Fold this protein.
Amino acid sequence: MWYLWVVNLRAYLGDEDVFNHSGWNPETYRRFVLRLGVVVLGADAILFYIAITQQGWSGNRFSFTALVATVIYLAVIIFVSFVSVNLERPLKED
């Protein structure tokens, strides 16, 4: 998941090198990785939300606390990937 989001952020921020040097058709590779990243992150979010709601005694299907925790979890994943892309960039430029 981390790798997919690093590649997704590179694509979103306009780094074409990751697609041109992959050995695949760059446009097809881009679409595949972007869709796969969204599916994997979505599945991870759903599983995280379900796990948090199952921790409670009431067994409710909707939990505002679990929803907030899931959003924060997703934000942390995307933020760490963003930091990774930013830290990697100066190394490529040198």
The chain has a mean pLDDT of 81. Residues 2-88 form one domain. Residues 1 and 41 are 7 Å apart (CA to CA).
